[in-house]
Amino acid sequence: MPLTTTITGLGHKGEGIAEIDGRRVFVPFALAGERVAIAIEGERAVLVEVVEASTDRGEPFCAHFGTCGGCQLQHLARPAYEAFKIGLIETPLRHQGLDAVVHRFIDAVGAGRRRATLHARREGAGYMRMRSHEVADIERCPILVPALARAPEIARAVEAGVGEADVAFTATLAGIDVGVRTERRRAAGDKLIPLLGRFGLARLSLNSELVVQAAPPRVAMGRADVELPIGSFLQATEAAERALADYVCAAVGKAKIVADLFCGVGPFTLRLAETARVLAHDSDRAGIAALDKSARHASGLKQVTAKARDLFRDPLTRFELAGFDCVVLDPPRAGAEAQVREIAASKLRNVVMVSCDPRTFARDARLLADSGFALEDLVAVDQFAWSTHVEIAATFRR
Ligand SMILES: C[S@@+](CC[C@H](N)C(=O)[O-])C[C@H]1O[C@@H](n2cnc3c(N)ncnc32)[C@H](O)[C@@H]1O
């Protein structure tokens, strides 16, 4: 029997919050202020009907919305959507005692996602259903770039060849790069070879090993071209990469010697090197080799020194940092605690930080604040549209 209740707020996973018998329940697709009918199923609540809709309610544009778990927020109208994402950044900062505000919200969706992983299962290919380990079979994903329109079909063909797998797609200048990951140790890669011609792919790999390649997948970064190693990190949208790189270059300003830490294949390094000497570190050896090759082949860049280094175990020390005008950090979700502790103890005055995790960002921002840095600028960069993820770019100075 459904019960009617009022949604009091939105949780960080985008679900409506209701209080039932003194207990918090999370209601997917319900919005703050709405009167809704819900059914309680064990620990979960299911939205049965919106009785009184919020003015923040928008019209989802994807036919798979509600079953596919890829987008959680398509039912939010634009201003409320942006406010929700800004809250994702500001709330953990407040919990760390930092009353910072997001100064700008940059829509970095551009032409769509050039990078996505689909799950290929016997029941179909797509993203995981919400709150489930089952896959929602999709025909089309409208948030991908047009070049990836056939991604679900390719994923189904991969499953037909090697069985259940996760299939990572990257749209590159040379065509689509497909990385297949399967738990079946003896999956036969040769079953994938016909897909290269059938779908006009650039490269196919299986469990990080090359199966077949028509052309090296490459992307343009500033004046340089980078050949993507199998499995290296790349920002999900080209627009976000550009927005983040533009932010980083502007914040670094006239600095002459810069360290780009957690540099990946070099989207910041290769643009920063147009005006500054850059030391670039990342633990991804193949990514560092690709960056090094790309920097050597590009014309008009200043000196780039790219070296593999594990910055969690072996951060640049306060003494090594002494020679830099500015440090750029873009760590993985775990953040950059060890590196930030060294920065805090150094004499460095300018830090630019990019982050995909508001909680570890807030923790690291607190460490910088405790050592005299002011958080001068804070920007939200929205590349994971309609999901509950958001990218942060920030400038710290002392
Ligand atoms: C969010 S990506 C950013 C990469 C790059 N700045 C970009 O925009 O494409 C984080 C990077 O951290 C690197 N990484 C992860 N753990 C690391 C570690 N312990 N030490 C150094 N780099 C690490 C990854 O290889 C990845 O390239």
Automatic annotation (TrEMBL):
It comes from the Bacteria. The active site is at 356 (nucleophile). Gene3D superfamilies: 2.40.50.1070, Nucleic acid-binding proteins (2.40.50.140), Vaccinia Virus protein VP39 (3.40.50.150). Residues 1-52 form the TRAM domain. GO terms for molecular function: methyltransferase activity. InterPro entries: NA-bd_OB-fold, SAM-dependent_MTases_sf, TRAM_dom, U5_MeTrfase_fam. One of its GO terms (biological process) is methylation. The keyword Oxidoreductase does not apply. The keyword Iron-sulfur applies. S-adenosyl-L-methionine binds at residues 235, 262, 282, 330. Keywords: 4Fe-4S, Iron, Iron-sulfur, Metal-binding, Methyltransferase, S-adenosyl-L-methionine, Transferase. Belongs to the class I-like SAM-binding methyltransferase superfamily. RNA M5U methyltransferase family. This is RNA methyltransferase. The lineage of its organism: Bacteria, Pseudomonadati, Pseudomonadota, Alphaproteobacteria, Hyphomicrobiales.
